[in-house]
Amino acid sequence: MTSITLCSVKGSPGVTTLSCLLGAVWPSERAVIVAECDPSGGDLAGRFGLSARIGMTSLVLTGRQREARLSNYSEHTQQLPGGLDVLVGPSGADSAMALDHEIGLSPAEFISGGDDLIVDCGRLLPGAIGQEKMVGAADTVLLMVRPDLTGIAHARWATSRIRELSGSAAHVVIAGTGIYRPAEVAAELDVEFLGIVPFDPRAALLASGSPGTAREFIRSRLFSFAREVVSALVDDAPTSPGLNRRRRGRAVLQNRSRTRKRLNPLGRHAGPQRVGLGEPPRATSA
Question: pLDDT per residue over 243-256, tens digit each?
Fold first, then answer.
């Protein structure tokens, strides 16, 4: 099992979209789940018309009632239109912060088993103990940073906090434009730089459920960027027994077309016609 936590600092949006994109291009031979643990509130329920009652809230509350490990997560997952498994977080900030507190105090493991985990922690907040727990438990922390004066100032605190919690430096992707070059950001923060998130509003809309063709999304710069990031992260991540690095790399290269079908929101078994829902989300009880 590999756990990757994504987070940002003030002025660096896009963590949820990037989390879904990474799940979209995750190697097809490895099961993956995207979990929303943003103490400011989740986006997936509203974005895709899912129920906020089924997901992180039900998982944590069930674990507390049973006083057991939070391993039976399958009954709490929902799927995006293409089939990617997600653990939806509550949309409201009050509920999300209450859930964060529950996650932080829970003695149970968040998820156990063989599935890889991509955790959307949103913007780092002081005192968010559940968010801190997820950062500390991650194999890799990916931080989104804006390359301007305020972005770097906030990122200094964030990278310092990540080191305290996880014992290692964050990996950084740059979102937006600013005065700092990538090499300067990496040197200033003493982190590993993975790339610049392309400015691709159309692809971002497709990733958020807007109607469009799969071909259009696959050919987008945002999709290509996500593949590059996943390649870098998976190469450094531990694998399950019996699947060595050489075999994994060969499988990704030889099954590129199969990997492309596992788009999110196209998801694991994407249909050929549409990237998004194709119609407005139907209202669900929150």
Answer: 333 333 333 223 33
